[in-house]
Amino acid sequence: MFRQLATLLQAGLTLSHSLQMLAEQHPLKPWQALLQSIADELSEGAPFSESLTKWPAVFSPLHVSMVKTGELTGKLEECCRQLAKQQKAQQQLSAKVRKALRYPAIVLTLAVLVVLAMVTLVLPEFAAIYKTFNTPLPLLTQMVMGMAAFMQSYALTLFAALLAPLAAAWALRQNPRWQRMLMQTPVLGALAKGQKLGHIFTVLSLTQQAGIPFLQGLESAEETVESCYWRGILRSVREEIEKGLPVWSSFQKAAIFTPLCIQLLRTGEMSGALDIMLANLARHHTEQTFQRADNLAALLEPVLLIVTGVIIGTLVVAMYLPIFHLGDAMSAG
After folding, report:
1. 332 or 218: which carries more pLDDT confidence?
2. How far apart are the C-alpha atoms of 251 and 197, rounded to whole Å?
3. Which one of 86, 117, 151 terminates a domain?
4. Residues 128 and 193 in one domain
């Protein structure tokens, strides 16, 4: 929306006319109604930023602050373009992280389904056949048959045991302690932390470049980050700055920002180039998270294939091993 709005404003259209055009062209009816409502309010003389505040579920405080800055400075087109750039960067980063985690989830789910099908449907048929042979089964086959019998007898219990951690993780997803534990996990923690740092410094860089006071920009970052744990951290940083501490020192007291963050913030604050250092930090963490997501996908793909192949291969060998033993017994007889 903001990219299209910036283009229309650059073409010389009024803000109200631009929003009406966007409303007519948008494929979704809820958005058509929303944009038309804002356009009507603008026609009645209401400021654009004030109209956005009436839709907090759609437009974040960052949107409102940037638009208000654009109205005050006469650079609404540039502010809209910067908002569009920020949204695109965050969407790409989130999509990259989700893609890195989606592949192993799909592979593991398919592997579990295949194993369950073999254990509950195929193995019982083989077990019934092997009972007619009246010959001892190989140890591997006995173990697999025992596992299959156990899974069939306690299917509901095993399903509940598998579902309980997932349900607990979903229920605790907004718990600060749980989110802090997630940040401490070796691989996923670094990925999640990098994504959040990229978002925070992107918002701070954007607001600084627009001339918004740092505390107000920090408040926008606090209200737009999707984590109560990180919101608490940014709130504590903001409170320290309000007490008179330097920006870099306030971030350092949070004890979660990397030494690179602290060093660049300190350099930027002392040299008067804080907006440049914030942009560097945003770019660094975004690129690093992209790289980590690619590395995670590249690492997990062969590992999951090997693990899945070993499990399914073991089941297949366990099913057919008695046939070879039976052939040896008949040859000996």
Report:
1. 218
2. 12
3. 86
4. yes
